[in-house]
Specification:
Largest sheet: 6 strands, mixed
Radius of gyration: 16 Å
Strand order of the largest sheet: 1-2-4-3-5-6
Helix content: 40-55%
Shape: globular
Number of helices: 8
Distance between the termini: 32 Å
Strand content: 15-25%
């Protein structure tokens, strides 16, 4: 495994390169979630998605890329995230509503630095393991051909199910089988982000 720092004015992170990834390799762009990734929280899908992505990479002979971004709390930090979780428990509001009530945007993350890091590896195409069209758009806009690979995980608690449903509704993340949406990342009804990926595939 090789490790490279990923950074620009938008933020920092690290790229873990497993084996000798080639065109079409599996890639995961993952924002840090202390609760889910480290503490094993049952209230989100962050840890299960990361675990599944790593299992898929290992299933292909350990060839792939993980980009781990320091964008805790959808880019607002751990303190805001903790405040949001507390307010959500008190009011029953979803994670996006509570961020607005606290005066923060729904999602301030950016993925351009991650996408440019992938391009710098010399990759021309990747299979991006994600349920977030913004990630697909960022990698496609960096000039790579992108095939989206949905990460389908089962919610581990009622709170996780509500969180996943809120993401699907509010952030246009396609939720896989939980909402009966199809899997084709280009032909499916994913909106402008996946249209961008399709345009790059046509080039």
């Amino acid at each position: 495994m090789r490790v490279k720092e990923v950074h620009d004015e938008a933020g920092v992170g690290h790229m873990l390169i497993f084996g000798e990834p080639a065109d079409g390799c599996l890639v995961r762009i993952h924002s840090r979630c202390l609760y889910g990734d480290v503490l094993g929280s049952q209230d989100c899908d962050c840890g299960p998605e990361l675990d599944l992505a790593m299992d898929l990479i290992q299933g292909e002979g350990g060839q792939g890329v993980l980009i781990y971004l320091e964008q805790e709390g959808r880019g607002e930090g751990l303190e805001v995230k903790a405040m949001g979780l507390h307010l959500g428990e008190e009011t029953g509001a979803d994670t996006f509503d509570v961020y607005r009530r606290l005066g923060h945007p729904d999602d301030s993350r950016t993925y351009d630095h991650a996408a440019h890091a992938l391009a710098a590896l010399g990759l021309r195409s990747v299979r991006l393991m994600t349920n977030n069209p913004d990630k697909v758009a960022a990698v496609a806009d960096a000039g790579l051909i992108v095939t989206a690979v949905p990460l389908e995980t089962e919610p581990r608690s009622p709170q996780a199910a509500l969180y996943m449903a809120a993401k699907a509704k509010r952030r246009s993340a396609y939720p896989g089988r939980h909402a009966g949406i199809g899997r084709d990342p280009v032909a499916g009804p994913w909106g402008s982000a996946f249209d961008s990926a399709a345009r790059h595939q046509d080039r």
